[in-house]
Design brief:
There is one protein chain. 72% of the residues lie in helices and 3% in strands. It has 7 helices and 2 strands, in the order αααββαααα. The chain has a two-stranded antiparallel sheet with strand order 1-2.
Length: 203
């Protein structure tokens, strides 16, 4: 989720990057991450050597996080646009997956909730797609799904507390300002634990 854009609304449309270049960039990122993991997983399935398995699992963790984050953030954007919320696309910097600013002053709580649940719908759709598509004949494939679940749990822990309050009328921006590093640490712990438990169950 993004905080409101501090620039003027009149100048924002001219500054924001195009939708299709952003989508193309993220599609290329998603394809690259899944392809690198798939190559390592195939290497293990063909060779059976431990190094290949370790590389496959490491790549699966990275790819799962990248895919989960991209689906989640574009789900937020789609949810915002479906509700006709005021948004401004931003150029990604570094390793950030944030793709837009949500104008909290111009948008109402209905639009905030549409944005929020859009992210949830998309990341669960990703998990379902992977579960249906993968044969689960290697630990690398199980690790990929476990990593996606870990990201989903991380995002859910962060956002559930906010939604619980905003659904009863609390201002969304005020709730976001209350997030601390401790909230993210707790969410990371829950996500990691959930991913590890799923990996152990499915192995």
């Amino acid at each position: 989720m993004q905080h409101s854009n501090t620039s003027s609304q009149s100048s924002a449309p001219a500054q924001q990057p195009g939708l299709f270049p952003l989508l193309a960039r993220d599609l290329a990122t998603a394809l690259a991450s899944i392809s690198i993991w798939a190559a390592a997983d195939t290497w293990y399935l063909i060779s059976g050597i431990g190094l290949a398995l370790a590389v496959s699992m490491a790549n699966a963790i990275f790819a799962g996080y990248v895919l989960g984050a991209l689906f989640h953030e574009w789900g937020h954007y789609l949810g915002a646009r479906v509700s006709r919320a005021q948004t401004t696309r931003i150029q990604p910097t570094g390793f950030s997956f944030f793709r837009f600013n949500f104008d909290f002053k111009a948008n109402d709580q209905r639009q905030f909730h549409s944005m929020s649940f859009g992210g949830w719908i998309m990341h669960w759709a990703l998990l379902l797609l992977l579960v249906l598509a993968l044969p689960f004949d290697s630990l690398g494939q199980v690790t990929l799904v476990s990593a996606v679940l870990g990201f989903i749990l991380f995002a859910t822990v962060i956002e559930t507390g906010i939604l619980r309050q905003t659904l009863t009328g609390t201002d969304p921006l005020e709730m976001l300002k209350k997030l601390t590093p401790r909230h993210f640490q707790q969410a990371a712990f829950v996500g990691t634990l959930g991913g590890v438990l799923l990996l152990a169950v499915m192995s």
